[in-house]
């Protein structure tokens, strides 16, 4: 893999978003509506662009060279509390190549430096083993299990809360 970097998600990434929205794992483990409404990639990007303007959220493409592999997002930013919830998704063809790990590592660095965050959180479905491995590799600590959390209509699941603080030891 070339040097993975983050770039602000924009219109040029709508095709990537459309592909991600059709992935069964993305539909299963994220809060996107299922079935995915026609044109939802535009609605979703507009929501994040509004969040960018207000400081409530941010989203980046995870890029390897010229290839966009997925997204890394600050799903919820709470400036007063200096806390953010982060998330990440990579395309099926990018899985197993370290893209999610590198994307979360870069997003974590961004949140600590740019947001001056004192606490970062990940909410991970208890059955999402690959995402938990990414969190571990990036130095996040599993804090506990939240039982029967609402994910979307018809789906409640046990969800793990993971966190990282600036004072935590850097991952090796």
Q: How can the largest sheet be summarized?
A: 7 strands, mixed
CATH class of the domain at 4-120: Alpha Beta
Shape annotation = globular
Low-pLDDT sequence parts: none
Q: Tell me, rounded to a whole number, the average pLDDT.
A: 95
Assigned CATH superfamily of the domain at 4-120: Gcn5-related N-acetyltransferase (GNAT)
Rounded Rg: 15 Å
Portion in helices: 25-40%
Q: What proportion strand?
A: 35-45%
Order of helices and strands: EHHHEEEHEHEE
How would you characterize this protein structure?
By secondary structure, this protein is of the alpha+beta class. It has a domain at 4-120: Gcn5-related N-acetyltransferase (GNAT) (Aminopeptidase). The protein is built from 5 helices and 7 strands. The chain has helices at residues 14-21, 24-29, 40-54, 99-114, 129-137, and strands spanning 4-8, 58-64, 67-78, 83-90, 119-125, 141-152, 155-164. It has a 7-stranded mixed β-sheet with strand order 1-2-3-4-5-7-6, with helices on both faces. It is globular, with a radius of gyration of 15 Å. The two termini are 19 Å apart. The mean pLDDT is 95.
